[in-house]
Predict the structure.
Amino acid sequence: MSWLSSSQGVVLTAYHPSGKDQAVGGSHAKAGEEATSSRRYGQYTMNQECTTKVTERPPFDRSSSQDSLDELSMEDYWTELENIQKSSENRQEDQEVVVVKEPDEGELEEEWLKEAGLSNLFGESAGDPQESMVFLSTLTRTQAAAVQKRVETVSQTLRKKNKQYQIPDVRDIFAQQRESKDKAPDGPESQSVRTNENKYQGRDDQASNLIVGEEKLMLPEDAPASETDINLEVSFAEQAVSQKENSKEKTQKSIDNDTLSPSFRLPKDKTGTTRIGDLAPQDMKKVCHLALIELTALYDVLGIELKQQKAVKIKMKDSGLFGVPLAILLEQDQRKVPGTRIPLIFQKLISRIEEGGLGTEGLLRIPGVAMRIKNLCQELEAKFYEGTFNWESVKQHDAASLLKLFIRELPQPLLSVEYLKAFQAVQSLPTRKQQLQALNLLVILLPDANRDTLKALLEFLQRVIDNKEKNKMTVKNVAMVMAPNLFMCNALGLKSSEPREFVMAAGTANIMHLLIKYQKLLWTIPKFIVNQVRKQNTENHKKDKKAMKKLLKKMAYDREKYEKQDKNTNDADVPQGVIRVQAPHLSKVSMAIQLTEELKASDVLARFLSQESGVAQTLKKGEVFLYEIGGNIGERCLDDDTYMKDLYQLNPNAEWVIKSKPS
């Protein structure tokens, strides 16, 4: 899918197979109107009244389709497009015409720097880049190159506009930071992070250790041959650089092998896997900044143009259910159910579909009756929040159509207007592993409401697929049906277009396939990014301590006494090799636990819960968690398989607290 832009606005195009192609696409003739309806290649514009231009169906070039999907397998996709068009025509009076103005390159790069947390590298604050020095010092080679490229573009743009801002050379900033690091002694926290990373020393510079597509990453001995590990310890962009440095023959072999769609997995990490939702907001903000820079660096290395779409201001409904921004929906819902993170109407539609049975044949593929869907929408808008809507009257296929309609009519796409093009560009990445790496970063970058709703959708789709023996909906079928609903955005002019449309359709269906199949993997924060956050926190702590010591000295306090107290704050009364675990909400408030090579977070929880009595005895696994707090991290929820001794060595100044997750 792509855009055709003009000076007047965005031109949309949409393709539907013609009736004469049904011999290839499968015979689905229906009585009445549907039997005579033609499928055609039509062109539409958002800045004028919708017009239709009939042209020949574009030829299909199998060699250019990364999935080698034939036209028969794409029939579900074209049928869904036709259903979407009919639904849009039926609700056309409710739609608003929007013209999207393309921002210039300088504006896009300025927006990129702001999103990356580097806005003080340009503009009025550009003369004092000290705030960004710690952040920049943690970047990899490829990440630094991505930042430098954008800073130079902004600099050139501002000069053309005769802006008098001074923009620092990022290379000078890195040079200053390296010099200061060479002079400054390392604190215990930075040493612990570096000690852990020494296990992987040289991976950034040795191509032979980073080849992803050549299966040179070491796998556990018991790993099936069909599984391939995703390396989360080294920057994805650095891995891509190393892969490109290999011979063309090897690279081609890698791509060929990759099309076999191996079952990717995450290797076990002794310091624990970090998932979205495990980190405190202040650390998650840093993760998002780093994820954007890493995604951009990865696309730069692979020669893919990554242009963020600037969010446009359009008139949106400020109440209701359909065509309402997710943020407004959640505000409405939270007045009814505090803490709601996924729109109530979205949850109820999924619930209604599942009540009818996930084994229903053609679930999600067979549409509801268009006029009935329109009437149900109007009735839901009037009665949903009053609680008077009769859900028993909603048939299962109608509920599925309403669910897809809800997604399509969001004024900003579920995959976000800023990153929808980046999601689409994933299909252009050369290997499956790189596609997954990019999707992983993009999921991290989504706004919370979008990410939570997407997660609920993907989990539901997986439950549909789990019943494929009955409903005949495989992961490929579901991906074909759902791709147009996620990757088309009527309000912003994102439609299928051009003779290459078959390839684009197959690509977005492939992306949908990966989102469904690897959803657990995609909600993981790469370890190299978490380690970069740890480094940032360590350097910031050192700066804060230095400032505090200077203040204390000025106030005539005993600095030596302060340093001694500061050093022993976390280790008071705790012998070497022992951690003190706090559980303020349990009857056993704290416990000293001896670290061993095999001690896991789940073992620590089990010891506490086994000693609980009364109300606390009702606590079960999954209701409370062990947290790593402070040191070189703000707050991190640990997974059960975290080896405590390894994590302690990585963050010796942390506190260990048992508590429940915030809602």
